């Protein structure tokens, strides 16, 4: 629903890009495969976790669009279910240029899947944050 993992990853990556003064080279956003939470702010636990790390976000949940597949170079997702859904959607898009893959493929600790913390607690959101931070750093290093 674009209210937990993806907004955390988006905010983490945006901060890394800003810290490296690379904002002019990156367009960062997040979106959901589904339309469940469109227009909602991230989960309060996600916002709290980000704030604890000095990161703010104004993200509002949205659903991925055909244009996303045509304009973004990379679409990174959190688990196999999202990967399968995104690949299926991309096959319906003419001129798809996005490389679709798991964000976890960039994790130096080899944690391929970033589990949804929605039904968990603050500790689970912190785990997601740490995974996103490791993966986003490695991703930025590779493509910078």
UniProtKB/TrEMBL annotation:
One of its GO terms (molecular function) is non-membrane spanning protein tyrosine phosphatase activity. It comes from Sitta europaea. Its main location: cytoplasm. SMART domains: LMWPc. Belongs to the low molecular weight phosphotyrosine protein phosphatase family. CDD domains: LMWPTP. Residues 1-142 form the Phosphotyrosine protein phosphatase I domain. GO terms for cellular component: cytoplasm. This is Low molecular weight phosphotyrosine protein phosphatase. It is found in: Cytoplasm. Pfam families: LMWPc. It catalyses: a phosphate monoester + H2O = an alcohol + phosphate; O-phospho-L-tyrosyl-[protein] + H2O = L-tyrosyl-[protein] + phosphate. It is an enzyme of class 3 (hydrolase). Its EC number is 3.1.3.2, 3.1.3.48. SUPFAM superfamilies: Phosphotyrosine protein phosphatases I. Keywords: Cytoplasm, Hydrolase, Protein phosphatase. The gene is Acp1. It comes from the Eukaryota. The active site is at residues 5, 116. Acts on tyrosine phosphorylated proteins, low-MW aryl phosphates and natural and synthetic acyl phosphates.
């Amino acid at each position: 629903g674009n209210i937990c993992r993806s907004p955390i990853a988006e905010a983490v990556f945006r901060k890394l890009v800003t810290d490296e003064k690379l904002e002019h080279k990156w367009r960062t956003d997040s979106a959901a495969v589904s339309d469940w939470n469109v227009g909602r702010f991230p989960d309060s636990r996600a916002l709290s976790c980000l704030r604890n790390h000095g990161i703010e976000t104004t993200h509002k949940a949205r659903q991925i669009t055909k244009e996303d597949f045509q304009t973004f170079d990379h679409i990174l997702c959190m688990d196999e279910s999202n990967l399968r859904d995104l690949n299926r959607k991309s096959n319906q898009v003419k001129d798809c240029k996005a490389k679709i893959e798991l964000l976890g493929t960039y994790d130096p600790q080899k944690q391929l899947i970033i589990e949804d913390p929605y039904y968990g607690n603050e500790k689970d959101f912190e785990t997601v944050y740490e995974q996103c931070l490791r993966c986003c750093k490695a991703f930025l290093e590779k493509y910078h």
